[in-house]
Amino acid sequence: MSFFQNWRCTNCGNEYELDEVHYLCPQCSKKWIGGEPLIGVLEALFDYPAIKQEWDKQPYHGLFSVLEEKFYPSLPVGNTPLFRPERLNKNLNLPNLFIKNDALNPSGSLKDRASQLVVADAIRLGVDKIVCASTGNAASSLASICAAAGKEAIIFVPKSIPEAKLIQIKVHKAKLYTVSGTYDDAFNSALAYSANNDCLNRNTAFNPLTIEGKKSAGIEIFLQLNDVPDWIIIPVGDGVILGGIYKAFKDLKSAGIIEKLPKLLSVQAESSDAITSYWETGSYHNANHPYTIADSISVKTPANAHWAVNALYHTQGKSVRVSDEEILSDQKYLAQMTGIFAEPSSAAVFSGLKKALTQKWIKPEDKIVLLITGTGLKDINAVRL
After folding, report:
1. pTM of the entire structure?
2. SS3 for 332?
3. What is the rounded CA–CA span in Å between residue 168 and residue 358?
4. Are residues 307 and 242 located together in one domain of the fold?
5. Which domain holds residue 8?
6. What is the separation, in whole angstroms, between the first and last Cα of the chain?
């Protein structure tokens, strides 16, 4: 069973039943202007007292799922390891540093968590096609999980997509469209496709199930640590993983399971820093030239910017910029010290950790989780040996 109650608009507060709306708040979305962050993103509300009763019997992240698990595709997603990287901890003098390695999901990225829930919704509704825009990870994820469920994936990606991610999409027989321009152009193309075809749209934040799916990583972190960490460090492009991790701990707190929220550290590439600038100034502006070696966080207009910055405020979090040079250097260092080959966007979390330590935001005794969201095998051409 599911303890889901309603969708609530994060902008106006209006509430909707599960199938009353599938994407944005109908009222607030009218105010949305293309080329700006989404307005009217929905969040899920649950019967929190009922969840607490069940949690006290048997803690389980599925208690916070919007959909019943009987609709989930058979391909297992999640339950990825969290561990203490001993060599790295000793070298940095950070005894309570942990890594959550979500690169061990089926398609090699955390995005499988979102795809799992969207495909489950397609199974529930009897919809055969799902469309999405992606820089590569969401696309290869959707293609993989659609293949497992016998659904058709329709993918829009920028031409700059790394070859390994392109191969992943093609091997699962997804219908692929390459778009001249950026991820933002692919996002708009996928919106146009779903507006004119019978399908579900998986675009990040546009479909609230993408936030709810990624939320499961945060609940797993709490279960695996049996504690709320002081900091979770997250690579940020469109802000949906950040929003999902925040939603996980917000739900746990609403259910009376925890009393405090972890601080969230957003890490962005210097050229794709719209959320960082928004957090610093309180005023939103698109990133000027969103081109970075960390393709998974290369975004001009982050769809979930409003929710992401709200998450930083409510968790007393921070946001930092890191250069491509720092990312590539730390990708190699992380691989050599921990055994984890992370893609550039994930290696960025280590670059962000170092900056936060320099700023003295993070104390040596703090309990810290680095969230690795994708494997380095997805973009081997980016590696500098």
Report:
1. 0.97
2. helix
3. 38
4. yes
5. 4-71
6. 50
